[in-house]
Amino acid sequence: MRVRIVVLVAFAALVACRKSEPQAAQPQRPNWLLDVPYLANSILRDTTGTPDAQHVVLLAPAPLDSVARYYHHRLPLMGWRIVSDVADSIHASQYWVRGSRPMWIQIDAQGPQSLVSYTATGGVADSLTARPEQMH
Fold it and tell me: Domains in the chain, please, with CATH?
């Protein structure tokens, strides 16, 4: 009986130590938000993307109106043009374009902080379907 147990343990160890087949490396997706500035001391909450789009969510250490002003000041200096800006006391939605690249910034009030969501794509947005109001 002990021999069986030793053989089973040895077999299990062999299976566990066996090298797995190397997996093909996933192609690296473009970082469409690489040059977008983030408010200092922001905390990354989420990031997702595809080869065509990228989405990043941060918790920013400032109220909604301060975050919105920050982007109104910084992004035009970097060549971004604002297309749409809709805001109330708890949410701001900004739609920016630089060249043929669109970017949406959604800002949601979280008390003294703001939850900031960025979505950027690598191509031209369809003017009928790519509306910032739809990007909640």
Answer: 30-134 (3.30.310)
